[in-house]
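Input/output pair, single chain:
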Amino acid sequence: MKLTKLHIAIIMVAALILGFLGAYGGVLMAHPEDDNGQQQEEQAEVPFETPGEGNGEEPSNEIGKVDQAFQLIKENYLEDVEDQQLIEGAIQGMLTTLEDPYSSYMDVEMMDEFNEQIESSFEGIGAEVSMVNGAVTIVSPIKDSPAEQAGLRPNDQVLTVDDESVEGLDLNEAVAKIRGEKGSEVTLSILRPGSSEPFDITIVRDTIPVETVYSETETIDGKLTGILEVTNFSEQTAEEFTEQLEQLENEGIEGLIIDVRGNPGGLLNVVEDILMEFVPEDTPYLQIEDQDGNQEPFYSQLGEGEEKDYPISVFIDEGSASASEILAVALKEMEHDVVGQPSFGKGTVQQAVPMGDGSSIKLTFYKWLSPNGEWIHETGVEPTIEVQQPDYYYTNPVQIDEPLTYDQADERIGSVQLMLEGLGYDPGRTDGYFDDATINAVTAFQEEYDLEATGEIDQDTAGMIEAELIDHIRNGEDDQQLEKAIEEIYE
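Output:
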């Protein structure tokens, strides 16, 4: 059977929007639920049989081994064990052997949370995660979420949750430890790339906002330029995007920048609707490849002469995943500029298959390819204009037991020096050696923020420096990627 047009809920995120968005990542084609109050989606025609329907094939003789193991445990194991526990364990075990972080089992509770959270706001810390080389890894924090405010960044690895290791857990189990109710705290031990020592971040869970599109204008060389930031592709995003784009066009913009940095993905039908504003009908915006290597392109209905007549740039970074990458690579292959850093690299499609009891198996069925047939999985979309943010954007939070002071050399001192430099204080160096210039910079900061002016870096001083730097970054200060896009858009 042929895959029909994908106007269905295809989840592009590297993980489920859970609060600590995690366990259900990938491009997911969601089946409609039974008539049990859940929202139903248009069903794709896909080449597989729903469990229980049968496909005319005899079950493998090896299935008998599974039944034999089940009976052996039930009849002989020292302690009582529930049938459901064994069955779900067997399913999870099979999926684990695939070594695919995007294929997973979702029990009834997880499916309830999934359905609830893709439709409305949710409670948690607000970060997308995936399993990367066996480590629970941040894909991206959500804009204005507790995770972003606390300073979590793409590629941060989560080592422990409230002092309990997540090593050996699957993604679902790790997420279950992290999510929680609004107002509750969770402490994560984080290992950041480039740092040899982990650090702790304590986050107060909250309600994660559902607003996903933000717009503003800049005048560049006398030309009004629209900037649309898309934080994820949720149910209302295409409508928000279209409304705000129309408003910008009514204001007379002569260029457009679409910012999907830190955007972990969302619903495919949403990014489809957005791409239909830009990709003409004679050019595919996406291709899907099945298990046999058959590729099918998908097209918009944007007629000749309806294309945008102004230049467009797209921002991406390492936190841009799935739907963001579909948007970026489609516009890149239309020869629009893509500015920033290589994206996350998520290029597979998962199908959520209901198991008849409210649970589902999410299994990788397809690849998605760029309009030209490029598969960006694990490599990401390469920008046409590569720009890195200032070094202080990538510094590590520091934990201090004893104050850091004059004539010491320490990796943590180097991090604080970079932060001070980013905030406009001159530490004289950033190599981690604490000299007179660093004392002067620390003292100046302490005096400005009403801290005891000791010239030493204690935990209060380090914490205040980190908090001010996070605000500095979130406010878009020294955004070199934006500056470069603005510089190049009319070249």
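The chain has twelve helices and 22 strands. The radius of gyration is 25 Å.
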